[in-house]
Structure formats: C-alpha cells, structure tokens
Design a protein that fits this description.
single chain; mainly alpha
Length: 243
C-alpha cells in the first residue's frame, strides 16, 4: 500500500466506488454534521482515548473513505488525495508539511450532496490539522463530524461500522491517549507535545494482514513517503530541516 492508487479492500466491500449518490442531504443533516458534538458524547469519549498521531492516522483513513466515495463525481478529489498524503507525512514529521488551508473565508456552501459533503469533510480535516499543529488537548473532538460524514455517505454502513469498531479497539491498544483521565483546561490554551508518540501507517487501517509494531509502522510510512511526488503536492515542504 505504497500509494493511494490502490483501493483498500474494505472500501471496495462497502460499495463506495461508483455507487449512486443516494444518501440524504438535507439542511437538517448538514447542521447535524457541522455541529455534532452535543449529540455524540459517547463517540467523543471513545475518540478521546486515542493519542494525537493515532488520531491523525484515523483522520487520513476517514478522508480516504470519503475520497473514494466521490471519485468520479467531482474534480476536487485530486486535491483531497494530496491532503491525505500530507496527513500521513505529518505523522512522520509535522514540520515538513504545510497547513491544510481550505476556504478560510467560508465562501463555499455546504449544500450539494457531493461538493457540500466534501466541503464539510475538508473543513473538518482543516480544523483537526490546526489543533494538531497547536498541540490542543481537544484534538480528538474534531474527528466526530468526519466519522459521522464518512458513515453517512457509505452505501454499506455495516461494513463501515465493523471496520470503525475494530480500528478503534486497535488504536486504543496501540496508541492510547496519555492524558485521557486528566482534568483538562477548558480554555484550550495548554499545549501537548506529541513528537514522541510512535508513528502509525496506512496499513494499520486498511491491511488485515499487517502486524503492528513500531518498526513495521516506521518502515511502512517511510515507504509510503518515498513513493510520493513531493514536488506535485503543495502541502508538502521537504526543504524544511527535520526536527
């Protein structure tokens, strides 16, 4: 799985590739996805059990679910692919990636079952990236909308549910949140340093035969990065000195 040209088996099984856009896309659904935290406390509590690099890996995997669902329906998926690449690179070295800027003036509407859904996805990813760069202790809460969106647009939701459930269990075991039981500063001014957390790779999420170890993950993510066209991705800047 050295690049994003290979569709993960579970995404194929979920019938996401080329399936008609037949999910509901109403104003109510849009509002639910834009402001999901209050009605999804249990999901938030679950996500808070994962550390930062595990959360960024989950972000990249969820965005890939959405990317494949919309491939062939919008031209914007090429840019989405580059953001996925940048997320994986940021796990390895955040300093060699640029901020995932997207519609900073909120000029694009969330209406439209394809472009509107993609807008919500990329805005969620933008906020996750912001909190990751800041070292926010509340990074994980930004994933809620992305999880709900990926599930909503997936044709075979039971496939997604099984994958997500199994993935969360593995993440809590391999990448536990070290501050999950702490009293957190609600002002979100405190800074958490995730630089010492172990990396995680795409195989962890999409290869059923992958056996997680720190060494295996490092090798996998380095192979992934080595196969990227660095110059073609504006979100990557490998001229920056590794920290």
């Amino acid at each position: 799985m050295r690049n994003l040209n290979n569709v993960p088996k579970i995404i194929m099984e979920s019938k996401s590739i080329g399936h008609p856009i037949d999910y509901k896309w109403t104003k109510r659904k849009i509002n639910e996805l834009l402001d999901p935290s209050e009605e999804n406390i249990n999901l938030e509590d679950t996500l808070m059990q994962i550390n930062h690099k595990g959360s960024i890996g989950l972000t990249a995997a969820l965005l890939e679910w959405i990317y494949w669902r919309f491939t062939g329906y919008t031209q914007a998926t090429t840019d989405t692919q580059k953001r996925i690449e940048a997320l994986w690179c940021s796990i390895n070295n955040r300093e060699q990636t640029n901020p995932l800027l997207f519609d900073t003036d909120f000029e694009i509407s969330a209406s439209g079952s394809v472009n509107g859904a993609l807008w919500i996805a990329l805005m969620n990813v933008r906020m996750i990236d912001v909190r990751y760069r800041k070292g926010s202790y509340f990074l994980q809460s930004e994933l809620i909308g992305l999880v709900l969106l990926a599930r909503h647009i997936t044709p075979k939701k039971k496939k997604f549910d099984k994958w997500f459930s199994q993935t969360i269990i593995k993440l809590i075991h391999s990448h536990p949140n070290p501050y999950k039981n702490d009293e957190l500063d609600e002002s979100d001014e405190a800074v958490y340093d995730s630089s010492n957390e172990s990396v995680i790779s795409r195989e962890f999420f999409f290869d059923s035969e992958f056996q997680y170890t720190i060494e295996a993950s490092e090798n996998s993510i380095h192979n992934f990065i080595d196969n990227l066209n660095i110059k073609a991705n504006p979100f990557l800047d490998f001229s920056k000195k590794a920290s």
